[in-house]
Amino acid sequence: MREDIVRNYEAAKELYGKYDIDVDQALQALEHIKISIHCWQGDDVRGFLFQDQELSGGISVTGEYPGAARTPAELRQDLEKALSLIPGKHKVNLHAIYADTEEKVDLDELAPRHFQTWVDWAKQQGIGLDFNPTCFSHDKSKDGFTLSHPDPDIRRFWIDHCKAARKIGAYFGEQLGQTCVTNIWIPDGYKDVPVDRLAPRQRLKEALDDIFSEPLDPAIHLDAVESKLFGIGSEAYVVGSHEFYMGYGIQNNKLICLDAGHFHPTEGIAGKLSALSLFTEGILLHVSRPMRWDSDHVVTMDDELIEIGRELVRNGLLEKTFIGLDFFDGSINRVAAWVIGTRNTIKALLRAMLEPTEALRQAEHKGDYTTRLALLEEFKSYPFGAVWDYYCAKMGVPVREQWLEEVKAYEQQVLVQRGHLEAEPSAFGLNVGQ
Ligand SMILES: C[C@H](O)[C@H](O)[C@@H](O)C(=O)CO
Ligand SMILES: [Mn+2]
User: Fold this and answer.
1) pTM of the model
2) Which of 253, 346, 362, 424 counts the most CB atoms within 10 A of its CB?
3) So what's the ipTM on this one?
């Protein structure tokens, strides 16, 4: 390892040691944390099952950056590149529309065999898989309703799809020897203020009861339910609101998924974790970055991310929290998007582990809020970057922005060669020939 990295690390250790912060122990703990990296950043949520379907469900991807994956093999290749630049062993999160099959198969008929190549690949990579039914971008969700649809036949289709998704998730968990989380998110809602808010929620509750009626071994599979405040076209009312799923999750022992972009624009999810943790089996996070709306920007080291890291670490919630990412930006290199968002999420956890939590807690208990504020502010400039550099070097991934060179080279060698992309790379701000 480079001498300067070790020297800076040792100096940082000494500083943190003054507050009894065990840096080596923090790095050991960090190694065991798995981030669930969402496959859908790699192709702008298109998937491979229904290539002609427009993205629907009130979510949207903008940007025309070259190199979106067009096949499962390309997506895996891009994920491998990203994984090679992120410290640690993680998970990949798949949606049902990412089935890798030549068969013409609809969502309600999907089975584990349609994902066998993903399972084989995950085994090779030594990573886990998570799963999601895709209740959007389909003819049967055109009017904006799925599990709460008033038409029982359409509702049945989506119930059967979610049942199929759980079987696939359980297969992932069993094959890969690590729990797979299957997360249900539906777009159902109204553009304008409804008269009957109750009936769609009654139908959704019944549909979920049906979907979850088959018990699955929690060692290999867990269910999660994801709420939302509004989407494009469902501004006035969303059936699966936060209150709905919080109630359902608590009553039925399901993981409650908190997506950082699914609340009011100034409402964060960090502050909800301690409260929910007292009543739930576990929490699933969709770490995202809403900008003015649920825009799903790439996760940066902003106040919300720092606070999420702190809440998980300070309250010992890492054990019962599954950390997933959920953003999709088509305006920048998609591999870089994964790398930036995932490295930031891990870095925020490390940063939280290197805070003088005990000293801060004591100050707070004594009512010494001056010390609390002073320490919190001073620790913002403590050298956690030196610890991060050491961690990256130790884990065999590029230190600091060195990863960007690798992504730029990959862009030239692989991404710009992909068919549908017009090769005038300078138009996209690429440094041709460098
Ligand atoms: C594609 C994802 O499943 C989707 O983004 C969902 O998790 C969500 O957050 C919808 O807004
Ligand atoms: Mn989400």
Assistant:
1) 0.95
2) 346
3) 0.98
